[in-house]
Design brief:
Distance between the termini: 53 Å
CATH topology of the largest domain: Rossmann fold
Strand order of the largest sheet: 2-1-10-9-11-12-13-14-15
Radius of gyration: 23 Å
Shape: globular
CATH superfamily of the largest domain: ANL, N-terminal domain
Structural class: alpha/beta
CATH architecture of the largest domain: 3-Layer(aba) Sandwich
Helix content: 25-40%
Number of helices: 16
Number of strands: 25
Number of domains: 2
Length: 494
């Protein structure tokens, strides 16, 4: 039976003394990790959490996060990781919409989220962590274990003002994890560094595939280029993931080091979110001798759809051509089929496409119309490789985070001095894209750029808020009144 908790149980039996997790100076073996999962599962069951109930967690990367995701699956509950960068209002909406029975909050995040509640709420810190692990009762087995039951819900920004909850089954996540591990060439000799926030599509599913192969996982709580290099050196890290901004952080930190580059020739970097420029790929490989691997997917696809790792043919084509080819999204992974609609939208079929959008049958039917998942991205497939040429017109990706432009526009339009607002993504050297607002003031309305940015930040996560505002007398519109955002993008493309 496919079940997420089986990944840990497998290696707890096979190699109980092997290191599973490294975090803040502590090494946790697979046997210890398995015991912790059962203890936390027992605690959840004792709190009245039953199969199918939602457990929400607002946490930074930690061992407690991984214990919870495996413990919920062990008792048949549904795990909901929430982006800790969101505002209190945004988190509150997700907790309410998901109907979460229990909300677990990282102690570092509690102060700004005091108004966000659930039927049960617990702040996780040193004392509460210890209480969870002191629980000695073995949870009752999940008698109705079903691989098609919902394992996780991950809320993702869409083209509507409110995020949608992506339901992924045990089968979805299990197959994504094993498929991605296969294509990244993961083996028990690897050491993985958690740079990707674990709330992002369940850490891209890698925690599960890595556990299945007995890979030690080094947990990093905060992303920092210098700290990444230190951990690569200290722990012998061979694999990590991250958005292009993470690669830039590592390169910047490496430029200031006098010591030899750590991990030369041994580290593989899986990069997702958006393809970086060719110069970034070349710098990673030339300056650090690390291998670059491009991946593409969405939360709705668990997330991997394609990977792009240099082949022998690419190497033979020369460095410049090999680097250029690596900017393509990649070729479909095992079990994935791609097609393009007449308008160029990328369509996908696989064993790890979402079950549904939580409590949103209309959005589910639209996304799965015709038996294909509609990604909202535009692209083409040449020689079996997907190149993404554009994304859903109302979606911005900044630093690997999705931002729905309509959500930002709604916030701006709530300001008393704003008559009209259009939000687009514009190029940014560090983040790939950043949010830009084009605003029409009301007659007699007075608001400055810094004031409007501050207003947006007071109601939205900072990464969603505009970093610049242009004030105009009118927005370009079609004869039917629709804002012509393509004209705004053309105007601000530089």
């Amino acid at each position: 039976m496919i079940n997420l908790s089986s990944f840990i149980a497998f290696h707890a039996r096979r190699t109980p003394d092997r290191c599973a997790l490294k975090y803040r100076g502590e090494d946790i073996s697979y046997a210890e990790f398995d015991a912790r999962i059962r203890q936390v599962g027992g605690w959840l069951a004792a709190r009245g959490i039953k199969p199918g109930e939602v457990v929400a967690a607002l946490m930074k990367n930690s061992t407690a996060f991984l214990e919870l995701v495996f413990a919920t699956s062990h008792i048949g509950a549904v795990f909901l990781p929430i982006n800790y960068r969101l505002s209190a209002d945004e988190v509150g909406y997700i907790v309410d919409h998901s109907q979460a029975s229990l909300l677990l909050v990282d102690h570092e995040l509690d102060e700004r989220l005091t108004g966000v509640t659930a039927p049960h709420r617990l702040v996780l810190g040193p004392e509460s962590d210890a209480a969870l692990l002191r629980w000695g009762t073995e949870p009752r087995p999940w008698d109705a274990a079903d691989e098609n039951a919902t394992a996780t819900i991950n809320y993702t920004s869409g083209t509507t003002a409110r995020p949608k909850g992506v339901e992924l089954t045990h089968r979805n996540v299990w197959l994504n994890a094993t498929t991605l591990a296969l294509h990244l060439g993961v083996s028990e000799r690897d050491v993985y560094l958690h740079v990707v926030p674990m709330f992002h599509a369940n850490g891209w599913g890698l925690p599960f595939g890595l556990a299945a192969l007995g890979v030690p996982q080094v947990v990093m709580r905060k992303v920092d280029g210098g700290e990444i290099l230190e951990r690569v050196e200290r722990h012998g890290v061979t694999l990590l993931g991250g958005a292009p901004a993470v690669v830039d952080m590592v390169l910047a930190a490496a430029a200031g080091r006098s010591r030899p580059r750590p991990g030369a020739g041994t580290v593989r970097v899986a990069c997702g979110g958006a393809p970086p420029p060719t110069r970034t790929i070349a710098a990673l490989e030339d300056e650090l001798s690390w291998e670059f691997i491009q991946i593409y997917g969405l939360t709705e696809t668990s997330p991997v759809l394609v990977t792009n790792r240099a082949r022998g043919e690419d190497v033979a084509a020369g460095n410049a051509e090999r680097t250029r080819r690596l900017t393509r999204a990649g070729a479909p992974v095992l079990g994935v089929r791609l097609a393009t609609a007449p308008d160029g939208e990328v369509l996908a079929r696989s064993n790890h496409v979402l079950k549904a959008y939580w409590r949103d049958p209309q959005a589910t039917d639209a996304a799965l119309a015709g038996g294909w998942f509609h990604t909202g991205d535009r692209g083409r497939v040449d020689d079996g490789f997907l190149t993404v040429t554009g994304r859903s017109k109302d979606m911005i990706i900044t630093g690997g985070e999705n931002v729905a432009s309509i959500e930002v526009e709604d916030r701006l339009l709530s300001h008393p001095a704003v008559a009209e607002a259009a939000v687009i993504g514009v190029p940014h050297e560090k983040w790939g894209e950043t949010v830009k607002a084009i605003v029409v003031r009301k007659t007699g309305g007075a608001v400055t750029e810094p004031e409007l940015i501050a207003f947006a930040r007071s109601g939205l996560a900072h990464f969603k808020s505009p970093t610049s505002v242009d004030f105009v007398s009118a927005l370009p519109r079609t004869v039917t009144g629709k804002v012509q955002k393509f004209r705004l993008r053309e105007r601000h493309a530089a």
